[in-house]
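Budget justification aside, the reviewers requested a transparent look at the raw inputs and outputs of the sequence design task funded under Objective 1. We therefore reproduce one unedited record. The lines immediately below are the structure tokens for a 106-residue chain.
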């Protein structure tokens, strides 16, 4: 699994890189707080179809995240995206708890 660090993700956001940042937690968790520019595609029974409708370019860079390193949602989403043929997928494995501790609500 390819991962991305908080520092690398922060730099991508600051530079305005073209990539999809995807929170895979519930809509409620997303509404409570999400990383800047993130979209919400919750892991669940309709994940694959929502991904295919939303992220049409399988060469686009995608970063998935969930709550923290103990959460299995982003590693599962990573695997599903790879199985669907997406080539440039990264997991921000420490998730939004790490982001909030280091960066705060931006």
């Amino acid at each position: 699994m390819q991962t991305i660090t908080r520092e690398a993700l922060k730099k991508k956001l600051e530079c305005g890189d073209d990539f999809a940042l995807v929170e895979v937690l519930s809509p409620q968790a997303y509404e409570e707080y999400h990383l800047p520019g993130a979209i919400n595609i919750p892991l669940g029974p309709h994940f694959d179809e929502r991904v295919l409708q939303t992220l049409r370019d399988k060469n686009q860079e995608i970063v998935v995240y969930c709550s923290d390193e103990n959460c299995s949602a982003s590693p599962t989403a990573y695997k599903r995206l790879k199985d669907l043929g997406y080539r440039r997928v990264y997991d921000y494995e420490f998730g939004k708890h790490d982001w909030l501790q280091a960066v705060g609500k931006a």
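The CA atoms of residues 69 and 93 lie 5 Å apart. The longest helix spans residues 73-83. Computational costs for records of this kind are itemized in the attached budget.
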